[in-house]
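[step 3/7] fold_predict: job queued, chain A
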Amino acid sequence: MPNWIEVSLTVDGEGAEAAADVLRRYVANGIAIERTVPGGEAWPDQPIPDGPLRVSAYFPDDDQAPQTRRQIEEGLYFLSRLYPLPEPLFAPVKDEDWAEAWKRGFSPIRVGKRLLLKPTWADAEVNPNDIVIELDPGMAFGTGTHPTTQLCLQACEWFCRPAVNMVDIGTGSGILAIAAAKLGCFRVVARDIDEQAVQVAAQNVALNHVEDIVIVQHGSLEGFVNSARHFELGMANITANVIKQMANQGIQHLIYPYGRFVFSGILGDQVDDVVAALDEADLPLLGQRKLGDWVMLITQRREP
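[step 4/7] structure written:
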C-alpha cells in the first residue's frame, strides 16, 4: 500500500516560485524545483538555456491525504487565476520507492569551471581537474539542476578558498556547503530548519568525506545571529520573501564587516524589494548575476 503521494506540475521560472509557495503550506518535507531537461553545463559567461521547471513535493498517504490534496488543488486553482498553471499531477509512491522518484531528471552535470555534480547512482566521466560532488538529495532541495543553485555554485568557485569560513543558511541537500569545503574553505556551517534536510545534508557531507570541515545544524536564524560565530562568507539559496524576513532578523550579524553574503532564489521582479531590505540591513549590493528568470545578489556587510 503506497504511503506517499507525489504532487507535481511543470511551469516556467516565475510559475515555479509561485507554485512552490503554495505547496509549502501543505507539505512538510520540502519542495524540489528541477529542470525538466537533465544535464548540461553552466559557465559564468555562458548560462544554460532557459527551460521549463518541474515542481514536486510529497505528502503522506494517510487519513489526511484527501484534505491535503483538496487544499493543494484549491491553492493552485486560485493562483492560476493570477498566473496560468497546468493542472497538478498526483501519483502514489511506495515508501521504499520514494527516493527513486526523486532521481528523475537528475544526471551528472557540470557547473562553473571545475565542479562536477554526480548523483550517487550514476556514472560520469571525470576529468583530472574536476571537483566531484556526489549527492543523494532525497526529500531536500538541491541537486544542482535548478538555476538558483547553479548561480550559488558559481559564486562558491569565485569566493571559496583557504582561510575562508562560510555559513550556508537553508542548506537543503548540503550541496553548497560541500562545494565550499571541496573548494578550500576551512570551516563551513550548514544550517536548516527542516529536520529531513538536516539528515540528508549530514549524509551527503559524510558521502563526500568533508565531515571534518562541514558542521550540519538544525535550527532557525533566531538566536544564531546573536551567537559569537562570525563568517567571512554567507550563502542563502532560499526565496525572496524568506530573505527579506531574515534581513529584518539581523542576518548581517553572521558576517564580519566587509564580508560577503550571497543570496539566490530571487526572481527578476523581486530584486528591487530584496535589495532594499538587504541594504537596510547593512548588506549593500556589490553585484548580481542572472540565469534564466532567476537572480543572484552579492552583498557586502558595511563597517559598523
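[step 5/7] annotate
The chain has two domains: 4-101, 142-300.
The radius of gyration is 18 Å.
exit 0
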